[in-house]
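Pipeline run #58 for the internal structure catalog. This entry was flagged by the ingest filter as a single-chain record with no existing model, so it goes straight to prediction. Upstream metadata was stripped on purpose; only the residue string is passed forward. Reviewer on rotation: M.T. Logging verbosity set to normal.
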Amino acid sequence: MSERRTDRFLDVARSHGLPPFLADDPGVDSGHMIAQYTQAAIVAELKRLAVPASVDSIPSSAMQEDHVSMGWAAARKLRRAVDGLTRVVAIELLTAARALDLRAPLVPAAATAAVRDRLRVAVPGPGPDRWLAPEIEAAVDLVVSGGALAAAESVAGPLY
């Protein structure tokens, strides 16, 4: 769902007035198109990781056990899935922040603005094309550290 929301932000036919790909100069700049490609690739991997490790079960211990041999693979797949999902959410956060800035002078809800403002400490707002990898990493750090949640909760109170 996160990747699909990002796709909608970037599609001029479905973004309700935002520039194509949230580009500074559509037709010349890529905007966040490459970030969405990254999300799509990660989501494809997440679908592959969603296949249970047990479908490739190999019995061990004289045909008595298979959970021991599959447990490690399942744990590794889970780690990769959590890392991938974190990156997908971070890219959505980055893209949503840019879309919010492009919607000015409209003002987002207080918690949404707080998260966007916290991101803006590390990531500049809209502008011409630039290398997005450092910005994606800053957004990933904001998600992993709990900074995005803390920013929202500073305004809205506990969210769980």
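catalog note: The chain has one domain: 2-156.
catalog note: The chain is about 60% helix and 0% strand.
status: ready for reviewer M.T.
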